[in-house]
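User: Please run a holo structure prediction.
Assistant: Happy to. Please share the sequence and the ligand.
User: Here you go; the ligand is glutamic acid.
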Amino acid sequence: MCGIIGYIGFREAAPVLLQGLKRLEYRGYDSAGVAVFANGGSNDGILVRRSVGKLTNLDRLLHDNPVHGSTGVGHTRWATHGRPSEENAHPHRAGKVVVIHNGIIENYLELRHELQAKGRTFTSETDTEVISHLIDEYVQSGLSFTPATRAALQRLEGAFSVVVLCESEPEKILAAKNATPIVIGLGEGENFVASDIPALLDYTRKVTFLDDGEMAEVTSESVKLS
Ligand code: GLU
């Protein structure tokens, strides 16, 4: 089980993400990473920083190579598919889409072959990378971020939680799950997503849990469940 955290609001995202991941440290991990919308939103794009091993390695990387922005996601990985390495560390990016994932995608090989046949190139050994490519495939075909993510999630088999960013829609984070937990933390002018409550307790005590098959569209001002 990995750790997941997402933030959208007015604070610098990277320290909030690191703090949340520290609170999830008991889960253990092989690597850690963050993705942050750079200040300026879609024009500057999403910046990803990942490093193998303990959270202090990611902390150091972010110190030397900072990311500034107030929307982002963070992940600590407990490897199930692919060795612990930087390439296999989350977040995983494909085109405009960035994904963090907890759990296992059972039909990932079939999806990977399908996406490779469409010309998609994979850079990791993880099951997770099919999710980012699948959502991006739907985005490239003309769907907007939310329906593209919904369409992609319908193709996945297994137990999973995902949190997704899309470069063309920087004002929202999407979260969804099947058989693993996702908790949404509600703030004032800011909102949070996490795999477990301790990640949020420094910021809010108002939380709500996602149900299986439910998707949360999280902006700084609202949380829409559907
Ligand atoms: N199956 C994914 C991987 O191996 C996610 C594992 C996790 O839950 O951390 O990267």
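Residues 1-2, 77-82, 101-104, 126-128 surround glutamic acid (CB under 6 Å).
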